[in-house]
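Section 3.1: Structural characterization of target chains.
Under the original work plan, the team committed to producing a structural model for every single-chain target entering the pipeline before any wet-lab resources were allocated. The record below documents one such target. The sequence was received from the expression subgroup and is listed exactly as submitted; it comprises 137 residues.
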Amino acid sequence: MPQLQLIEKTAYQPAAPEITDEESVAMARAVVNLFAKWDLTDAQASVLLGGLSPRTWARWKAGSIGRIPRDLKARLSNLMGIHKALRIIFTEAERGYGWIKRPNETFGGALALDVLLAGELTDIMRVRRYLDDIRGG
């Protein structure tokens, strides 16, 4: 019977590098602009940002972005990933911005926006994975 061997302890390293505060603020500013291009309502923006309060969203739109918690950083990162994929897939920016409001067979004929507005981080990740697969990422 084989003997068990002791394995040396190693320091924990996250699978992905941590998003810095500076990066998250830059992503928040970019998302404000992206949501304007997507023509989202304040209520839709709040859902996509994990229930961000109307007051905080108004501050973001005015350029005042405070501390961003980890879950929101993940949402911002995935929304930026969706934006990046759409910019790669569509050479015309307006087509990319409009894509989220067009029916999609992959989502059972629903709009990608409908999937995103289900509200969970995993819903945003689902759309991002789909686009990453299309673009070959």
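The helical segments are 21-37, 42-48, 54-61, 70-89, 93-99, 112-116, 121-135.
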